[in-house]
């Protein structure tokens, strides 16, 4: 009878007691464990399946957590978590109150550095290696695992550039599977492909940067990995091990459809088939409204360009890339490059739509200010995943964009309440605007099923009165405005409450706001973004500057990093859920 190996492993010290010959069996068990739980609990599947042997080998050879290990991004760290004390709670992965889907220093001493955004691992591990040297810890090892998509990012090269002129005891493991969330792109990808095929030019790019290079080796041959890691332990200075893996290894469908099975949702753990959901009569995803609309507009307007930093599927720019590839660009994990490239295209008379997740635009903040806004170039930023995004947690919530963009001169900020408004603002922007614009919309579905209506131009800075009231004015921006509409229906449309879809966070509709403050006693604002510096703050500033004394209540995301959970759970924690709003309105109505 087969005796489980994984059941007796709770920490790497248990792993190191196992005979080397048994490790392939452990790898099989670990894969099955990941598949069993992710099949029902959801999460990032393919990346973790691809590094099972590598994960086991690293913890088998190195003395973690004394030796430092950083997983770039962290999509691939599930096996690491299971082997480092979190096996019994892995079923809570990405759930409210459970463990994070990414490495997190507060969660475990084995998570040497928190990750979630790409390409930070080399800089971080170099910092730790230099710190160890300064503290006299000469025998400590420092390992970073980074994928071929992440290593092409500018920040990764900044780290490589510095590490190559140090004697820091650093090992960079390049996990080369030719795919990130979408297939890897760019000249470096072609170079690595040539290295794997033995057709690369004589000079090795990593050796030219002063790294001791070894590989490429088969990342699923655990004995070969262990042998090479053992050898590299004795070599001082910066080293790079090139490992070839298959994303989704061990689940046939995940190997064959690596984009879908990066984070597949629920699936049958035996067959790999995705669990079918009822898609009949569902309203469209905001990302698809963007994707189909920009394609429709681009077919008529030859100046339209689409740009995304490595998110063609997630942003739905893939539709334009498939039909008009010469005008749609995936630039890889390079947000800074994407923004400056877009600004230069705008300078030359093109109409660039730069589609970036809200949380990732943070990585190009200087370029937004210096290259776009300062020069007043009309780049159209389409900020997908704005607001609370759910199980990916604090590293991915797009709740800061209003605050970090609102202070930038020359920048228009718009939040559509529904698919039709998103469609119309995209149409309006490509007609020509005097300033750059940021259009923020959430992850998830828009409220209406029928949305492909004739375009209508939106007047910049103009809000929309949805319901007239007498005492309480509800001011909303974005998708959450639909919540107010349903609440008012539940309250039988009380005459005291008015509702205004403000739409533009910048510039505000000063004329309408002046009327609102004069006509209503109490003002309530609602946004899916941080309270500090957000839309509500803009309304407070307006009231202060114009001498209005009305009570103002702001509903938004609190001044704290919210962790992972469903969007509904996180809205409830932030008290921007329907029940919290309804209770507050009822209290006001009763008081009135």
**Tally of DSSP helical segments:** 24
Mean pLDDT reading: 94
Largest sheet: 7 strands, mixed
Choose one word for the global shape.
globular
The main sheet orders its strands as 7-6-8-9-11-10-15
Residue share in β-strands = 15-25%
Radius of gyration from the alpha-carbon trace, in angstroms: 26 Å
Question: Could you say which structural class the secondary elements and strand pairing correspond to?
Answer: alpha/beta
Q: What's the total number of strands?
A: 17
Low-confidence stretches: none
Annotation keywords:
592 residues; alpha/beta; seven-stranded mixed β-sheet; five-stranded parallel β-sheet; globular
Quick summary:
By secondary structure, this protein is an alpha/beta fold. It is globular and about 75 Å long.
Give the arrangement of secondary structure elements.
Layout: H1 12-15, H2 23-41, H3 46-50, H4 52-61, E1 68-71, H5 78-86, H6 121-134, E2 142-147, H7 154-163, E3 170-176, H8 187-197, H9 205-208, E4 212-218, H10 222-233, E5 239-244, H11 252-256, H12 286-300, E6 304-308, H13 312-315, H14 318-323, E7 328-330, H15 335-347, E8 351-357, H16 358-361, H17 365-373, E9 380-384, H18 401-406, E10 412-414, H19 419-431, E11 437-440, E12 464-467, E13 472-476, H20 481-490, E14 497-501, E15 504-506, H21 510-519, E16 522-530, H22 535-545, E17 552-557, H23 567-574, H24 578-591
Parallel strand pairs: 1-2, 2-3, 3-5, 4-5, 6-7, 6-8, 8-9, 9-11, 10-11, 13-14, 13-16, 16-17
Antiparallel strand pairs: 10-15, 12-14
Helix pairs in contact: 4-10, 6-7, 12-19, 15-17
